[in-house]
Design goal:
The complex is a heterodimer of chains A (614) and B (187).
Chain A (H helix, E strand, L loop, with lengths): L4 E7 L3 E13 L2 E6 L2 E6 L2 E5 L2 E2 L2 E2 L23 E2 L1 H9 L4 E2 L2 H5 L24 H19 L9 E6 L5 H13 L5 E5 H12 L4 H4 L5 E7 L4 E11 L2 E9 L7 H18 L6 H20 L5 E6 L6 H4 L1 E6 H12 L30 H11 L25 E5 L6 H17 L6 E2 L8 H13 L13 E7 L12 E7 L8 E3 L5 E4 L4 E8 L10 E2 L8 E8 L11 E10 L5 E7 L4 E4 L4 H5 L1
Parallel strand pairs in A: 1-10, 10-11, 12-17, 17-18
Antiparallel strand pairs in A: 1-2, 2-3, 2-6, 4-5, 7-8, 7-9, 12-13, 13-14, 15-16, 19-20, 19-23, 20-24, 21-26, 22-26, 23-25, 26-27, 27-28
Helix pairs in contact in A: 3-4, 5-13, 7-8
Chain B lengths: L9 H17 L1 H9 L27 H15 L1 H5 L8 H22 E5 L8 E4 L20 E4 L5 E6 L3 E2 L16
Antiparallel strand pairs in B: 1-4, 2-3
Helix pairs in contact in B: 1-2, 3-5
Chain lengths: 614, 187
Amino acid sequence: MSARYAIGIDLGTTHSALSYVDLEASEGEQTAHGVLPVPQLTAPGTVEALPLLPSFLYLPHPDELAPGELALPWATDGEGAIAGEMARSRGATTPIRLVSSAKSWLCHPGVDRRAAILPADAPEEVTRVSPLEASTRYLAHLRQAWDHAHPEAPFDQQQVTVTIPASFDPGARELTAEAARNAGYASATLLEEPQAALYSWIQGSNGAWRKQVKAGDIVLVVDVGGGTSDFSLIAILERDGKLEPHRVAVGDHILLGGDNMDLALAHLVARKVAANGTGLDAWQMRSLTYGCRAAKEHLLADATATTWPIVVPSRGSKLIGGSIRTELTRDEVTAFITDGFFPRVEASARPATRARAGLTQLGLPYAQDAAITRHLASFLARQAGATAQLEGFEGRVSADHGFLHPSAVLFNGGVFKSAILAQRVMDTINDWLYMEGAEGARMLEGADLDLAVARGAAYYSYARRGGGVRIRGGTARSYYVGVESSMPAIPGMEPPIQALCVAPFGMEEGSELELPGQEFGLVVGEPVHFRFFGSTTRRQDAIGEVLDFWGPDELHEQNEIQATLPLEGRSPGEVVQVKLHALATEAGTLELAAVARDGQRWKVEFDVRSTSEQ
Amino acid sequence: MSTPTQLPSFWSRLSLAFGTFFKTVGDAEFAARVRDDQVGPVAAPAPVAPAPAPAPVLLRETTPEAALQLLTLLQREARLIDFVHENLASYADADIGAAARVVHEGCARVLKDHFTIQPVRSEAEGARVTLEDGFDAASVRLTGNVVGKAPFKGTLSHRGWKAIDVRLPQLAKEHDASVLAPAEVEL
């Protein structure tokens, strides 16, 4: 049976959503689409269908809830752990049982992402879950919600796309694909979120996008979500008279988003309240954070408002006497949000980094510099040469340019509902462009900031079937394994290593490359480890190329990778000569394989911590 | 008095209690029956009346469940029950105003999330309107000098409200809707 719907899933740090395109009712760029309301617990025994599923998981105590209170439309006894709105609201008062930001943990290279480590600060008796399992739960919830609403079109027969940050490394991509498989997704494709945002914009324009961009444009996608910021550059090419978007660069993973802004404001206001002698508990902090978000949105939407009142309700039943009234002023919002997160900096500004204290590894590696514009300046400068070799872009980049010049900007994420913030980013970029004598960039209008990623993912599922415009570009990084160079050892120095390119930049999905020449001897039954590097800027390295040295910002070391040859008819200790193959899968992941001369293949694992350290 | 073979469940008792309450208030004859019933305080022996023929059902009972659900939502989002149960006499208007923000914002959220409410008449209030013959008397109330025949001409004094859609949450089978807000105990 063929698919009736193209489904897109935004698996977000703080919210997830499911959008779909009805294939039978869609033709070319005219699509019939919708967003699935997701039934979820909002309170004990209460189920509501909401457009977003908060990406939170609550692990209740066995005595905490009356039996039968966790029933969902598809599970009368509930599912043990609670996902969605009720998890978020319960977890605010009992944080030791709340799993949040599972997605940020999923791409945290410092932890074993298959191990039950969440919630990080839970006491012994709470049965923890792994980042992988938490993500699986959200995806499974969305699948069940779909199957409940569409019994006539089972989920696993539809075309499904799941989005990931463009900055996800191969390990995190692989884990997301694994979570999707575990959640019962028969075949899910991965798509980068900034691309999804552009797809949604293309879909929303009903074909008019061709009037808003032209060949030669470079679109900068600035995606500031709840928990992460993500940048991508997409060049518009013209091929055979048709406009074709090409994703040419992606940014680094920055754990910094709208939630950080709300929390920063809440702490500011809490200090103000504390100065009057009133302390706030965790429960009140949460309502203060909600109040600050609402106040921030009002102040950032209405340029004439100077203050906005915030009331923190009392926890007890005495509402009038016990509530705390305070306010947020425009000066505070400007200082903390506009100038704190989006300062007008020079194009040469770089995010501040400081050496980490040795014992902070357990938490998430949050961005140390809150200024999104500084991260953006750094990204554009690093990608100054991103379009140098692109067809139709020759001669546009000169050596004098300190950064890549975007000609259009597309915003995504709820943060940019504030026109003031979007304008601030535009002004900052246009200052940079002006200083280099370039024309200002324009803002692409008509983006849907909350549901764009889910919508764009559904459109992509649809476009993959040949229905609409597709963004090209292939893999956004080149990858290398470290090989020890044959130089004589120098006492006190690590032997220098060379980087061998095993997967070049821009591999199209479905393509497979073999590493020429080099063969590795793998010992049967013994895992072999390689140091592994990725680069977002080295576009020219061909597979098999060996680098002796590279710039400090060019190659980033990732978790080491591992190949294990199982026994399977061989004797332990036997050495098998293998070649490395790189495969960019149709599903959007990168695979490395060790292929023996007789054609036998073994997968090289990206996420090996669990076997190597435990 | 013999024991009934089938005792009513909690829900039917609750609904019975509500129904009896309103019926006692609104129906003097019924109130007299309650007073004179063996269960209630006995005043005087009731005269034996011939059993009346069963009257056709003209009124329907509403279920208390949806009302309880709405109260739960209004308490959770707007702290309405807390607010109404407070004695305003002991507070300054500024304190009441601060709490009123919580109630107002919360009530607005409940109405927006769970109902789609539209004005009955789209004209501006104060405008002259004409009601043709056969207008819906349930959605337009005539006031003042109500004489003559349709079409009626008058001034719109209130636009009216109409719920186009109601989206109350679904409840689990065993869920006790009478708990409007659980007591909270911090460990």
